[in-house]
Amino acid sequence: MNRKVGIFLLILFLIVAGLISYRLLKNREKQSISEKNEGSRRAETKVYGMVVTGKPFSDFLSLTGGIEANEVVDLRAEMSGLVENLNFEEGSNVGTGQVLLKINDSELRAQLEQAQTRSNLAQENERRARLLLEKEAISQEEYEIASADYRTAKSQIQLIQAQLNKTLVKAPFAGTIGLRSISKGSYITPTTPIAQLVNLSRIKLQFSIPEKYAVKVRIGEQVRFTVQGSEEIFYAKIYAIEPLIEESTRTLRVRAIAENANNKLIPGSFANVTFPLETISDGLLVPTEALIPIQNGKKLFLKKNGKAKEILVETGGRTDSVVLISRGIADGDTVLTSGVMSLRDGSPVKVTLR
């Protein structure tokens, strides 16, 4: 009996020992595979890079602005009446003071004729009263009444003449007439829009500067801008600055004036404005593809001791191909410029300099 128990325990021991040996063998195989994978991950990643050196750079802001007419007015009549004459063509150029429209004034002219007759009579009465006063045939009071009647009659003529002047709509400045909203024979009132008059010889460029750069704005400073549909670069000179910063946007409104001799600039268009800040003699410039946007800013990778080093940076002005780095890197650093999206901080890298 004891012999059988011993044989059973021996067999059980051998089975357990075999299971343990099998488990240890499998663990060693897994560890070997893991070490191979780790070695594979630690293989150097081939990337391109560049050594950053200070270069001259003209820093600037890229802003969006709008083009406005130098002068624009909605033409309206000062009094109501029927349009008797239209003296302009849509889209035509007009001069300052040119008569654009005439309202029927027949009733006012009849009133003027009547007032002139009364004035003539009052003038004659005043003359006679003055002669009688000299002969002491009437009192001073009677003469003053006649004189007042004459002055009242003259004032009435002036009033009607002023009303007659309001039957004419004149151009307040030289410019181009837009599309009209009325026709000959229309009955118009002071609220009826006639057309727009726009001065296009010069245009106003309006844009807003972020609050942090507001102190850099100067009257007389030149900015350049472009418009959609044209590759031509235009220039404007700042002539007015809003005295207050807008609280909602934290920006400062600025206006500049630009010549528009060939009417290439159309009011209402958007403009891409380049506002100069300062010229930096040793700016650190990196290609735009080297920058990686992240939640709290931008980052790039430097080569440090054969590995990729993740660096948070602050940027300044930019062009189509390069970005100015204002903080985060130093002259002589090697910046990784391509293949950076797959990199991790501390990854081994093999850099080919460009």
From TrEMBL:
The domain of life for this entry's organism is Bacteria
Q: What is this protein called?
A: Membrane fusion protein (Multidrug efflux system)
Q: Which UniProt keywords apply?
A: Coiled coil, Transport
Describe the location of the Multidrug resistance protein MdtA-like C-terminal permuted SH3 domain by residue ranges. Answer: 284-340
Q: Which family does it belong to?
A: Belongs to the membrane fusion protein (MFP) (TC 8.A.1) family.
- SUPFAM superfamilies recorded: HlyD-like secretion proteins (SSF111369)
Origin species: Sphingobacterium yanglingense
Pfam family membership, one: Beta-barrel_RND_2
Q: Which InterPro entries match?
A: Beta-barrel_RND_2, MdtA-like_BSH, MdtA-like_C, RND_pump_MFP
Provide the coiled-coil residue spans: 105-141
What GO annotations for molecular function exist for this entry?
efflux transmembrane transporter activity
Domain named CusB-like beta-barrel: residues: 205-275
Q: Which residues form the Multidrug resistance protein MdtA-like barrel-sandwich hybrid domain?
A: 71-194
Gene Ontology CC annotations of this record: efflux pump complex
Bilayer-crossing regions? none
**Localization terms from the record:** Cell envelope
